Structure formats: C-alpha cells, structure tokens
Amino acid sequence: MRVAPALERVGDFAAFLAEPVDEDAAFLALRRAESIGRPIGSPEWLAALEALTGRTLAQGRRGPKGIKGLSKLSP
Fold first, then answer.
1. pTM of the full predicted structure?
2. What residues contact 68, with CB distance under 8 A and at least 6 apart?
C-alpha cells in the first residue's frame, strides 16, 4: 500500500488536477457505490482495506449460498 504525500506520488499536482476526467462515468460510479454501500477502488486497494479492517468490502458472488457438506445434486 502506498502511503506518501500527494506530491511524492503524483509529481506535478497541478498537471494531475488538469487531466481530463469523464465526469459522467465518475458520477455513475459514485451513485452505484452509494446505492450498494460499497467503497470504490481498485481490487488491490479493497484487499488492503479488507486486511486492515477485517471486514469484507469487495462484492461477493450473488445468489443463494450453498449448504456446507452438500454437493450439487444431479437429476
């Protein structure tokens, strides 16, 4: 995990802020995360945050969970 002042990580901070941003995509990602209550970030960042907090933050598989000890039954 990178922990350093922004100027060390980015360099020319003014140029970083001047980079073009797809505002519609950013807004959509924020809205999606807001509605599901999950943080936005790279898989590596989420894994590091999960390790620090001891909580599951990344989205898991959808659907019902299987019952332990039972395998899929064939017809």
1. 0.50
2. none
d(CA 58, CA 49): 10
How many CB atoms sit inside 10 A of residue 38's CB?
A: 14
Instruction: Give the start-to-end residue ranges of the domains of the chain.
Output: 22-57
Q: Which residues contact 56 (CB under 8 A, 6 or more apart)?
A: 50
Mean pLDDT, range 32-51, rounded to an integer: 87
Element (H, E) at 32: helix 23-36
- What's the pLDDT score for residue 67? 76
pLDDT at residue number 74: 53
Token digits of residue 9: 């990580």
